Amino acid sequence: MASPRDETSAPKDLEELLAAIEAIEAPSGRVCFEDVLEAIGRRSFGPLLLLAGVVTLMPVISGIPGIPALMACFTLLVCAQLLMGRRTFWLPAWLQRRWVSRTALLKGLGYLHRPARWVDRLLGQRLTFLTGRRGMQASALTCLLVAIGMPPMELIPFSANVAGLTLSLFGLALMARDGLLTLIAFTLAGTSLALVVTALL
Predict the structure, then answer these.
(1) Distance between CA atoms of 76 and 79, rounded to whole angstroms?
(2) DSSP 23
């Protein structure tokens, strides 16, 4: 298990997040969700959102039935607690005990390193007012709505990927204080919710 991180040492970009997860030791060959939370920190909203998005996007892992719904539950809990004013995020034991094979996890992360380097180079501090307290609350509310729509997305081709990308962009935007990325994430959020509404009508 990795050493717990505080808010100041939480990952600052996508490559750091991937590196923190890859550094988790798993003698049993299983990586629990609790291990991942300890590795990236429980007090940082941005990295937690990014984690939910990355897992939903990750090849191999995202194809496991129920994973999008699990990430939706995680996102709902984190966003609701942030809107309630909590600074440390609580998760139920049953969610923290969920695990995945470390081999499958590393394989899935391997696909993300090249795009991660490209994405991180594009980050910058722009329109930072959109990533302040009010902006973070607006992002949390939007991600909460996206999470509500994620379970039916398992039945709609590619819609879960759009939701995962949306969560990833919100997480990165808050970590890098990139308000321009926040605007793009809001647009994608509207797209993912529109896909669900259209499919259900």
Answers:
(1) 5
(2) T
Residue that has been written with the tokens 């991660």 in this structure: 116
For residue 166, give both structure tokens: 């949306």
Angle, vertex CA 2, rays to CA 177 and CA 34, nearest 5: 80
Query: In the predicted model, what is the mean pLDDT of the chain?
Result: 85
Give the list of residues 6+ apart from residue 96 with CB closer than 8 angstroms, or none. Answer: 32, 33, 34, 37
* Amino acid sitting at position 113: H
Contacts 24+ apart (CB under 8 A), 101-105: 101/29, 101/30, 101/31, 102/24, 102/26, 102/29, 102/30, 102/31, 103/29, 104/60, 104/61, 105/21, 105/31, 105/61
- Beta-sheet pairing, 99-101 with 30-32: antiparallel
Q: What is the pLDDT of residues 180-192, one digit of tens each?
A: 999 999 999 998 8
SS3 category, 89: coil
pLDDT band at 170 (very low <50, low <70, confident <90, very high): very high
Taking the domains of the chain in order of start, what are their residue ranges? 7-200
- pTM summary value: 0.84
Question: Count of alpha carbons within 13 Å of 48, Cβ hemisphere only?
Answer: 32
Q: Alpha helices, DSSP H only, in 3-132?
A: 14-22, 33-40, 45-57, 67-83, 93-96, 102-110, 113-122
Q: Which residue's structure tokens are 């923290």?
A: 96
